[in-house]
Amino acid sequence: MAELWFGYVWPLIWIVIKIVLIVAPLLLSVAYLTLAERKVIGAMHLRRGPNVVGPWGLLQPIADGMKLFFKETVIPTGTNRAVFILAPCVTFVLALIAWAVIPFGPGLVLADINVGILYLFAISSLGVYGILMAGWASNSRYAFLGALRSAAQMVSYEVAMGFIIITVLICAGSLNLSAIVAAQKNLWFVVPLFPMAVIFFISTLAETNRHPFDLPEAENELVAGFNVEYSAMIFALFFLGEYANMILMAGITTILFLGGWLPPADWALFTWIPGPVWFALKMALLLFVFLWVRATFPRYRYDQLMRLGWKVFLPISLAAVVVVGGVVVAFDLQPVLR
Amino acid sequence: MIVQAFAFYLFASVAVAAGVMVISARNPVHSVLFLILAFFNSAGLFVLLGAEFLAMILVVVYVGAVAVLFMFVVMMLDINFVELREGFLQYLPIGGVIGLVLLAELVIVVGGWTLAPGTAQIAAAPAPAADAISNTHALGALIYTHYIYLFQAAGLILLVAMIGAIVLTHRRRPGVRRQRIADQVRRSPAETIKMVNMPPGAGI
Predict the structure, then answer these.
(1) What is this structure's pTM?
(2) Would you list the DSSP string of chain B?
(3) Among B36, B52, B72, whose Cβ lies nearest the Cβ of A113?
(4) Per the CB 3.0–4.6 Å rule, which of A7, A56, B133, B161 could disulfide with B137?
């Protein structure tokens, strides 16, 4: 009995507790990211943003959530019901399971697997299915067009992202995310790989379908894109998934280029602040840039988007793999495994 | 051990069931979705074998790229389901033959393992011990040294396929207006803007 308890049941309960400890703050941050987005863009437009529900509008996301929760779920007759319901679930689940390998601090990670970065890349490349399935199952022209645009866009920018990840891996010498962060102990990768970091950040904008690459849901041409037929909770799942993906992408960029949980310098004042706080601060900075970009740039035209992905980012990142690899081998910067 | 065995039978049975559904589903889009499910469970089996690199590459390449293209094609094509069913009996013999050939090859390989367990080791390059280094390192150390020519040949075949696809589909259509970014950037205000001082009421 004791063996069963300590061998199987207790580890299971402990993992569930850890998952709740990751997912609950994540969903809370998603809720407050939506508020932050409206507040930040309001400030940039010289407006106040939401300020009625609760003090300074702090309860606004809760009110929005309640509204979506109590609305009626409408499933149009022409839809393919199973796929229609499955699509938002896929988006939401994918946005959550990626967090299993994110290290929040030294040793603070749910699953410290050897191929962590490949796992993240695999999960982010699956994000396209939620959108594609939603667009097809909706049986609506607008939704389908939005889904096709989005699929082509996400596949295009993934190629450049993959090559940039390879340049980081060459410098770090490991696929393990904790090892990648530990390799930045002396110098964050954003310094030697600055152009790659910029391209990676722009690609994450395209990967999460954010402005200026939000063609899948271009309101003025496609109504709302792939999620036009969705309502109430199944719409909320899309929304939560999309914002959780934004936070995830900010987290990946932080781990790859901004040194994860490491403080900016090894000074006493900085090292007193715990690692997860540094991680959260860096992600918050990147998320602010996400919102800033949305308030600043006009939307790309579709052919310009494809040109940027295939004719600009792909050649540059491909060349970067060769150059970075060559430099690392030529100057013996990374101990190569024999 | 019980957990591993349970996971193996779960992944294996779902993979086989999904495989059956791929060929028996009426709707081609559902077929592709079941194919993705089968890929996922195969990746799970790889993880159980300790080949986590292969598992992740399977998901990235097959689910993340190949199946997306399948999905694209299946969704875009206006497929007549009745017409698709008609040829079933006609293609059954050749399909059956291909299936039998694959089955025979599998039997030969697995039979070789069980009858003469040492044969595979003789043919293969010496692989490093699995617990000494991660299997990504082990795979890289083999592919880029012992199997470098085969690896490069596989890359060349892919390159030829890519060039072939481009040659077959690319055509220059005359009369299409394209945006030339270099030309736009090269323009200067001096050659594009003309300042005209018009007296009021005169018209052009």
Answers:
(1) 0.86
(2) -HHHHHHHHHHHHHHHHHHHHHHH-SSHHHHHHHHHHHHHHHHHHHHHHT-HHHHHHHIIIIIIIIHHHHHHHHHHS---HHHHHHTHHHHHHHHHHHHHHHHHHHHHHHHHHHH-TTHHHHHS--PPPTTTS-HHHHHHHHHTTTTHHHHHHHHHHHHHHHHHHHHHH--PPTT-----HHHHHH--HHHH-----PPTT---
(3) B52
(4) B133
